[in-house]
Amino acid sequence: MKLVKSLLLGTAAGLTVVGGAQAADLPVKKAVPIEYVRVCTAYGAGFFYIPGTDTCLRISGRARAEYGYIGSDSRNVPGGGDLSGFTGLARFNVDARTQTGYGTLRAFLRLDAASRTGHTKFASGTNLRIGYAYSGTGQDQFGRVQNFMNVDKAFVQFAGLTAGRASSFFDFYAADYEIIGSSLGSNLASTNLLAWTQKFAGGWSATISMEDPNYRKNPLFSDAVGSTGLVPGQSGVNNFFTTAPTPIILATNAAGNATAVTFVDAVQRSRMPDFVGSLRYDAPWGSAQLSAAVKDINIGGGIAGSAFTNLTPAPGAVTTPLGNPAVAALLAARGISPGAQTEYGWAVQAGAKFNLPWIAPGDGLYLQGAYGEGANNYTGINRFTAGYLSNAATYAGNPFNQYLSDAVVNPLTGKIELANSFTAVASFLHYWSPEWRSALYASYGEVWFSQGARQAISQTTGIIGAGQGLSPPSYLTNLAGYNLSAALRDTYQVVTGASLIWSPVKDLDIGVEGQYIKTGVKSGRVNDSSRGTPFTVSSEDVYQARFRVQRDF
Predict the structure, then answer these.
(1) Buried b (16+ CB within 10 A) or exposed e, 200-233
(2) How far from 300 is each of 264, 347, 413, CA to CA, in Å?
(3) pLDDT tens digit string along 273-317?
(4) Which is more confident, 79 or 287?
(5) How far apart, in whole angstroms, are the C-alpha atoms of residue 96 and residue 452?
(6) Sign, CA torsion 531/532/536/538
(7) Strand, helix or coil for residue 452
(8) Are residues 270 and 297 in contact, defined by beta-carbon separation less than 8 angstroms?
């Protein structure tokens, strides 16, 4: 047995030696090194290095649910009856930064997507008109069911340069403390721009920005109702073609009514960018900014093929302002150019933010004011009512519309006459405790138009009032209709509100906000379209409330 045991042990030892030698001769496959994600501390919390690069990346987002209610006078009013609204919103942010010899190279992306239904302040017509929202075509085809998609941000920043889709450098307060976000004032979510910012010592910086004009254009006033009563599409005074025609009066009768009218193309084209400049100061006490903008307002020449009341062109003549000798003579007699015209609107804005930690940590106060000519989207006078419309209802089924055109084409002179507007807003944020906070804000604004242009427009029968005429200097044959028409009336608006927000844990907000809005004519009264003749009003008001649950990460 001892012999057998010795043989077995010897054999095993021999096999071990041989096997070890063979294993040593085989190639060894090494494991791929594992590169762990490293935290990047250079740009704040949440950044990490993209593996294999020196670029720091932060991915964040937001989920939001909102439920709202707005008052309405009557379910029986056409367009009335929508009281509630619902929103579910998703936001995705990507922030990539790399340190270079020229400073930080940054790319920032933000995508917003939402499902929105309900009244006009939820299923937004403004966003529908600018292409952010897309209406459903199922059981509801009135724009009250929308999917919302917006490339909110997509810009590159490098050595003072900002290029891409970003917030306008004109804006300052931009409803920072609000839930509903419709206080009067400039608050353009995003625009396409190319800007240069220069920083100076002591907290000063200056920016020059070239910005997309299409996000700041409000239509010119254009309402072509022909004195001949022809329907749209027929040849004659009321020929709309494919553009927005505005009438130019070529002749009047003894009563002052228009007897010869032509049309010009009143659609504003994208001809030049808006130019924005801002000067900003940042300090421990807060910040302040002065900004200005200039933009073009343009119309085209006469619409080819449009006809003219009581004008008989010469045999073989083409009935256009350029080709019809009779029309050309009447235009020349009034000093009206038959070609395109351009005027320049402008706006200025001043704002300041004050940090108020001596009241409570996190407290702050914003003050801001803006004034403009032909620049209603810059002053933000249309922030609550609507954007990208000549006029709009302040709520469904309201007594009268508010007019918001950037300019009016005077049908007697053929000139572009700019609208004027201003807004002012104050907003205060207070922390009752680290978990509870409230905002209280109030804003006021006015918009007014050339009354000479408004009187001249009344001569193109049916635009203002019903069949009224105008004889020099200012006598109206239907003075009552003119005085009670809401068209191009000077108006004021008040938007004020308050909120209460609970944040039980970091990055979670549960809050509610109530808002009161009043819109009125600055003088006189207007017809009450919600009740009909003979009722008139001087103002209208409405309230709304919104509840929000929001989680940021």
Answers:
(1) eeeeeeebebbbbbbbbbbbbbbbbebbeebeee
(2) 6, 24, 15
(3) 999 999 999 999 999 999 999 999 999 877 655 545 544 444 444
(4) 287
(5) 55
(6) positive
(7) helix
(8) no
Alpha helices (runs of H) in 308-409, residue ranges in sequence order: 325-333, 376-379
The per-residue pLDDT for 26 is: 53
Q: Would you say 194 and 274 are in contact if contact means Cβ atoms under 8 Å apart?
A: no
- Those residues whose C-beta lies under 8 Å from the C-beta of residue 131, and which sit 6 or more positions away, are none
Spatial contact of 182 and 158, defined as CB atoms under 8 Å apart: no
Q: Given the structure tokens 């119309």, which residue do they identify?
A: 299
* DSSP helix/strand/coil, 427: strand
- Are 486 and 522 in contact, with CB atoms under 8 Å apart? no
Query: How much of the chain exceeds pLDDT 70, in percent?
Result: 78
Is residue 80 left, alpha or beta, with left meaning phi > 0 and alpha meaning psi from -120 to 50? beta
pLDDT of residue 253: 67
Residue spans of beta strands (DSSP E) within 47-83: 48-49, 55-70
* pLDDT score recorded for residue 258: 67
Tokens of 494: 């008040």
Secondary structure of 132-164 as H, E, C letters:
CEEECCCCCCCCCEEEEEEEEEEEEEECCEEEE
Q: Alpha-carbon distance 157 to 166, whole Å? A: 11
SS3 content of the chain, % helix, strand, coil (to 5): 10, 45, 45
Q: What is the pLDDT of residue 482?
A: 80
CA dist list (Å): 271 to 9, 221, 300: 97, 19, 12
The number of C-alpha atoms within 13 Å of 68 and in the hemisphere containing its C-beta is 26
DSSP secondary-structure letter at 221?
B
Residue 78: asked if its preceding bond is cis (omega within 30°), the reply is no
- Write out pLDDT tens, residues 306-353: 545 544 444 444 444 555 676 777 777 777 777 789 999 999 999 999
Q: Is the pLDDT of residue 30 over 70?
A: no
Q: What is the CA radius of gyration of the chain?
A: 32
pLDDT digits (tens, 9 = 90+) for 483-520: 888 989 999 999 999 999 999 999 999 999 999 999 99
CA atoms within a 13 Å half-sphere pointing along the CA-CB vector of 282: 7
Q: Which two tokens stand for residue 102?
A: 């020229």
